[in-house]
Specification:
This protein is 88% helix and 0% strand. It has two helices and no strands. The longest helix has 31 residues. The radius of gyration is 20 Å and the shape is flat.
Length: 66
């Protein structure tokens, strides 16, 4: 009896559970902000993550050059 589909179903269930928890957390963090206003917060966080990653990458390159 193959066990692949049962494992896939469990992964799908845990994925849905994780997704619902993430949405619930986002709703709590957003508070009373409208979703249209919240996009500015999210875009700012994405930008900060990008800059942080680029800085770490460039810092490592400079260290290797020395």
């Amino acid at each position: 009896m193959p066990r692949g589909p049962a494992k896939k179903k469990t992964e799908d269930t845990s994925h849905q559970s994780l997704e619902s928890k993430l949405w619930a957390t986002a709703d709590k963090l957003r508070g009373h902000l409208d979703a249209a206003d919240y996009k500015h917060v999210v875009l700012g966080l994405i930008f900060l993550k990008y800059i942080s990653d680029r800085f770490a990458q460039r810092h490592a390159e400079i260290i290797r050059e020395e």
